[in-house]
Amino acid sequence: MKILGIDTSNYTTSAALLDTSDGTVRQSKKLLPVKKGELGLRQSDAVFHHTKQLPEIVKALFGDNGEVPAAVGVSVRPRNIVGSYMPCFLCGEGLADSLGAVNNIPVYKTSHQVGHILAALYSADRLDLTKEKFIAFHVSGGTTDCLLAEPDGESVVRVTELGTSLDLKAGQAVDRVGLMLGLDFPCGKMLEELAVKSGRKFKPKPTLKGGSCCLSGVENQCRKMLDEGESPEDTAAYCLQYVCAAVEGMTRHALETQGDLPVVFAGGVMSDKLIRERLESVFRCSFAEPEFSCDNAAGTAVFAALKGNFI
Q1: What is the tens place of the pLDDT at every residue in 194-246?
Q2: Are 196 and 209 in contact (CB under 8 A)?
């Protein structure tokens, strides 16, 4: 049977179809359009674009065969905490509720963050970790969180914050430096392409406060590098190495305080291969593949499959 997942974040309109017979996932997604030089969208604009893009995204998955999924999973909030809310998630929730009502199928609702974590576990073939404690990172444009993840009957995985960014989020830092270099938003992939050409190894020292970090300094330091004639390639490399050093410090703190637990890295920033190579050389950890790292609906489909005992 097929399980539909839906995710309408502030970056991407996404749907995914999980086939429970063989465990494969097909994805259909499209970035929200952002005007050149701008850092993201207002929520009203995000809602508008999701409303336009959702029909074509879902149709790309189903075509004309008219197959009815056995269940729908959907992200309805950024995180599973009180007060976590963004209007853009209403687009996906409304479609999921409508599909559930018309087809008399169950709808399972989760957070964007849990969706990211489950997508990473699926991609890394580590769904077994939903039965034990592990450390999960969600590092994206709106989040730089280190989390203790534990099994939970209601939410599949219950997460408790161990550390976070106290100011700028990692994805924000990457996008601000990217725009500084004339790249298009979202800037992560193009910034990585620049950084690969550098070859320089820096020793950045991000501010760490317990298990949390501060990332606002990297923007000013990168601007200073450019003003002093450093190349765009070296500036990009410094930015990514700075973010990586912060995540590495947060990881060490989490392992020291929580014990030697498995570590899973999720979120768009973690799709960067330079960051991945460094962290994999230091820690026993798992990563999602890039298509399951950036905002996607695979995790919400997995959530529905687990909640409904379809897998």
Answers
A1: 999 998 999 999 999 999 999 999 999 999 999 999 999 999 999 999 999 99
A2: no
Higher pLDDT pick, 307 / 39: 307
Which one, of 139, 233, 245, lies nearest residue 178 by Cα? 233
Residues 138 and 266: beta-carbon distance below 8 Å: yes
Determine the pLDDT at residue 67. Answer: 86
265: which 2 tokens?
């890295």
d(CA 191, CA 114): 27
- E strands along the chain, which residues? 2-8, 12-19, 24-31, 71-77, 107-111, 134-139, 144-152, 156-164, 207-209, 212-214, 263-266, 285-287
pTM: 0.94
Determine the distance from the C-alpha atom of residue 58 to the mean position of all C-alpha atoms in its chain, rounded to a whole number: 20
DSSP string, 69-132: PSEEEEEEESSSSTT---TTHHHHHHHHHHHHHHHT--EEEEEHHHHHHHHHHHHTT-GGGGGS
Between CA 165 and CA 171 the distance in angstroms is 11
State the angle between helix axes of 170-180 and 232-258 in degrees (0 to 180), rounded to the nearest 10: 170
Q: Is 196 exposed, middle or buried (0-12, 13-18, 19+ CB in 10 A)?
A: middle
Model pLDDT for residues 138-175, shown as the tens digit of each residue: 999 889 999 999 999 999 999 999 999 999 999 999 99
How far does Cα 48 stand from its chain's mean position? 22
Sole residue written with tokens 């730089």: 144
The answer to whether 18 and 2 have CB atoms below 8 angstroms apart is yes
- Name beta bridge partners: 29: 14
Q: How many CB atoms lie within 10 A of CB 147?
A: 26
Report the distance separating Cα 194 and Cα 189, nearest Å.
Answer: 9
What's the confidence (pLDDT) of residue 66? 74
